[in-house]
Each structure stands twice: as C-alpha cells, then as structure tokens.
C-alpha cells in the first residue's frame, strides 16, 4: 500500500505540467482501492484480537448455529438434582418433577440436560394429552442453582442457547401443559413456568422475575414468551420491577390462570392440579387434542392468515368423516 502511495505521488508531480485529468483520476482510483483493501484486511484482524473468536464466529456468520450437543456435554458436568418424568398411559397426563429439594429445586446444568431429555420423550408420546411441571417438596423452583451459576459464569450464552431450545420444545409440545407453582417460583423458575400453556398456583405460593435484582436479564426465553402472553406493558412491568407476587396478584396480572383452594395440603395440590387440567383440557381423544394443539402452534408461528387457514383446512379434512366424528354423530350428543 505504501508503495502504491509513493508511486502515485511521484506521478502527480509529473502530471501537474501535462494536466492529464484522465490519468489523475486513474491514480486517485488506485489510491482509494488500495486504502479500501488495507482497511478490509486490517479491521477483521484487529477485531479478532479484541473480541473472543467464538463470539466473532456467531456475530459474523449467518449460518451460526449453537452446537447443542457440545453444550449438553458441558452442562452435564454441573451435577446436582434430577428432573424426573412419569407418563401415565391411563389418564394421558405426565408429571415432570424438578428434584433438587435442598436447594428449593433450583436448576443445575445436569437438571437442564435431564429436562431436555424428558421433553424429547414427551415429543414422542402419541397417547399423551397433558403435562404437569412441578417441583418436589412444596417448591416449584428458586431459579438457577447459585452453586452452578457461580461455576458457570463463563458459559451464559451457551446455557441460554440450550435452554431456549429445550423450553421452546416444551412450549410447543403437542400436549396441554401446566406449571404447578408452589412455595417459591423465582428467576429462572418463573421463566420455566412461562414455557407451559397454563399456570396453576397454590394460594400461599410466591412468584417473581427477580433476575433484574441479580444483575441479569432473562436467560431462558421468558421475555419473548411474556410479551406473547401478557403484551409489552405487563412484560415490562414484571421484568423491570422484579416484584415477587403473591398468588392473587399473579392472578390479577394474568400470569397465572387458577388459584387452588386454601383447604388443601401441599401434597394434595398435585392431584387437584391434575383434576383441573383433565376437566378443562384433557377430556377428549389424545389424537384430537394433539392435532388441535399443533394447529394452534402452527397458527401462532405462521401469522400469515392464508397459510394458517390452509393448514387448518388440511387438518380439519383429515378428521371430517373419520371414526371419531361418526361415533359422535351416532351418540346424538346434547351439549347442555
Ligand atoms: C438463572 C438466573 C436466576 O434464576 S436469578 C434467581 C436466582 N435465585 C435466587 O437468587 C434465589 C435465592 N434464594 C432466596 O432468595 C431464598 O432462598 C428464598 C428462595 C426466598 C427462600 O428463602 P427461605 O425460605 O428462607 O429458604 P433458604 O434461603 O434458607 O433456602 C433453603 C436452602 O436452599 C438454598 N437455595 C435457595 N435458593 C437457591 C438457589 N437458587 N440456588 C442454590 N441454593 C438455593 C439456600 O441456600 C438454602 O440452603 P442452605 O440450607 O443454607 O444450605
């Protein structure tokens, strides 16, 4: 580049006499191209020195996909607690339980991996209708396990990518899901609750997006889900206040859908929640429930009304004239 500059300047002295405008323009063009090439070469090198390589790769590559397998192997090293799944074939309702009771079911890396595996099993459960997400020992979840959090301070973006994938899959299960909020539901715990279709709360429970008080924003996708669920204003209010709400306030805010009666022992609340789920959403045929939920997800993700209606028609045509409709017609049902 310096060589080009030198040649260009010496040429300039010669040309002042000849006033050869055409050659002057050509020299100027060479100069500009050389400078541009120089900048294009040096800027990425400087950025490479200043910013970690993995961030650059993500920021500049349009094909950047997090390697979930590698993240999973890393998260699995942060032990403590489990997430357990029971699938009841008879009722079609599964119970997924956060199990880290000494730390109020706060989530370790291992639990995140467990939960992702449970979700994979639920994605492939054709006779399933519903899911209850609950915590053991009278608490839902007090957020990220702070022992894990302290060890994983270098691993936030990766953990968030893993949780975004798992919790989006949870939200989009073809089952009707409900989070049973008991005791404490804080931070990441409140985020988990927003990855279910509904939230049922114990009258003595408390729930809050306390991330802001921990110097954080949401890492497990709750901001995106809250805006869909409650709209911008309420999302801003819950997330920026970090307020911890009692059951009635959470109901008034629209965050929860049902408050359980006061009369129940904590151990009976799971049974009551199951009754609520079945009575409201899981009475009918599993195949129809799954088809309905899938259509709702499709409509939500494809806001183009024509595309969504076409899909709805296709699903409808599959059931029209089918055995379930014929059985219902024969039964001569009165919908009183
Ligand atoms: C991913 C980003 C996030 O989730 S940010 C939010 C992280 N969560 C928190 O900061 C919650 C911190 N914990 C608390 O505020 C209190 O423990 C709450 C939940 C209010 C319960 O208070 P209290 O009923 O008095 O119980 P306690 O404090 O004695 O707790 C019992 C034992 O559980 C533990 N615990 C609780 N939460 C966590 C957590 N998130 N991570 C790790 N451990 C947790 C407490 O340390 C306590 O343990 P220990 O009995 O002292 O050994």
UniProtKB/TrEMBL annotation:
Keyword presence, Cell cycle: no
Subcellular location: Cytoplasm, Cytosol
EC assignment: 4.1.1.94
One cellular component term from this protein's GO annotations in UniProt: cytosol
Gene Ontology molecular function terms on file: methyl/ethyl malonyl-CoA decarboxylase activity
Entry keyword set: Cytoplasm, Lyase
Source organism, top-level taxon: Eukaryota
Keyword Cytoplasm carried by entry: yes
Enzyme class at the top of the EC tree: lyase
Gene3D superfamilies: 2-enoyl-CoA Hydratase, Chain A, domain 1 (3.90.226.10)
Gene Ontology terms describing biological process: fatty acid beta-oxidation
InterPro entries: ClpP/crotonase-like_dom_sf (IPR029045), Enoyl-CoA_hyd/isom_CS (IPR018376), Enoyl-CoA_hydra/iso (IPR001753)
Catalytic activity: (2S)-ethylmalonyl-CoA + H(+) = butanoyl-CoA + CO2; (2R)-ethylmalonyl-CoA + H(+) = butanoyl-CoA + CO2; (S)-methylmalonyl-CoA + H(+) = propanoyl-CoA + CO2
Family designation: Belongs to the enoyl-CoA hydratase/isomerase family.
Annotated function: Decarboxylates ethylmalonyl-CoA, a potentially toxic metabolite, to form butyryl-CoA, suggesting it might be involved in metabolite proofreading. Acts preferentially on (S)-ethylmalonyl-CoA but also has some activity on the (R)-isomer. Also has methylmalonyl-CoA decarboxylase activity at lower level.
Protein name: Ethylmalonyl-CoA decarboxylase
Organism: Candidula unifasciata
